[in-house]
Design goal:
- The protein is α/β, with parallel strands linked by helices.
- The protein has helices at residues 3-11, 28-40, 56-69, 102-119, 135-140, 151-163, 183-192, 206-215, 224-228, 233-244, and strands at residues 16-21, 45-48, 74-76, 90-96, 122-130, 168-172, 197-200, 219-222.
- The structure holds SN-glycerol-1-phosphate.
- The site of SN-glycerol-1-phosphate (1GP) has 14 residues, from β8 and α9.
Length: 245
């Protein structure tokens, strides 16, 4: 089954959780163990990527180690055209819509596209929209971040993504953000654009994850809190089950 079909199928019945693993943060074996715990805790897919220090070899070894341990899909969340490996099941083919850097909007995508075709990787077309504060990804991507409270601006970007034919919207507050994307912004986007909505950045507690899911997010991404939980299964379970019930 294609990864997009898997996601859409899941979303018929429940919200989806994806655990983000940064290949730069641990060895491939530890990443594999973390993915194993995530799967056991009910997570639906593993995303592999990070904003800095990620290189092809690093990504490749990490994805291979994860694939050995889990059955759930592994999706690349690329920094740029260098972080592509055929070992993954799919790749977010993403454009940072509110970047001021043309390379982040379409340049890296142009460089990576032939490789994706050659490798036969499934591209998941996604609009990546950075919300204040944006953290490292906002800085590295030279994002003109959407101020918290400017809900209509987020809606306008999401609508533009839909009319451009993109299949997924990702509202990103940035990894380690002190607060996640505001629930009012999530509600506003979901009311106007029916595409599957991914939300991530700064989600630390089961209550936050639940509020974000209730506000209309379809896919909830957590990275930092998973790293910090040190692979403790019941902590991750708490987070995942909060969005499922
Ligand atoms: C970053 O949205 C993801 O791209 C995850 O953020 O590390 O804060 O969970 P956290």
């Amino acid at each position: 089954m294609k990864v997009m079909d898997y996601i859409m199928d899941k979303l018929k019945n429940e919200k989806v959780h994806m655990g983000l693993i940064d290949p730069y943060e641990q060895s491939p074996d530890v990443a594999g163990e973390l993915a194993y715990v995530l799967e056991a805790a009910g997570s639906d897919a593993i995303m592999v990527g990070g904003s800095t220090g990620v290189e092809q070899k690093n990504v490749d070894y990490t994805v291979k180690a994860i694939k050995k341990r889990v059955k759930i899909p592994v999706i690349l969340f690329p920094t740029d055209a260098r972080s592509i490996t055929p070992a993954a099941d799919a790749i977010y083919f993403m454009s940072m819509l509110n970047s001021l850097d043309i390379n982040k909007v379409v340049g890296e995508q142009m460089k990576g596209a032939p490789m994706i075709k050659k490798l036969g990787l499934e591209p998941l077309s996604m609009a990546y929209i950075i919300v204040e504060p944006g953290m490292t990804v906002g800085k590295v991507g030279n994002a003109d971040v959407i101020p918290r409270g400017e809900n209509q601006l987020a809606v306008n970007y999401a609508l533009a993504a839909k009319y451009l034919g993109m299949k997924l919207i990702y509202l990103e507050a940035g990894s380690g953000a002190p607060e996640p994307v505001p629930v009012e912004m999530i509600k506003a986007v979901k009311e106007e654009v029916e595409l599957p909505l991914i939300v991530g950045g700064g989600i630390r507690t089961p209550q936050q994850a639940k509020d974000i899911a209730r506000a209309g997010a379809d896919v909830i991404v957590t990275g930092t809190v998973i790293e910090e939980s040190d692979g403790v299964k019941n902590k991750i379970e708490g987070l995942v089950s909060s969005i499922k019930n």
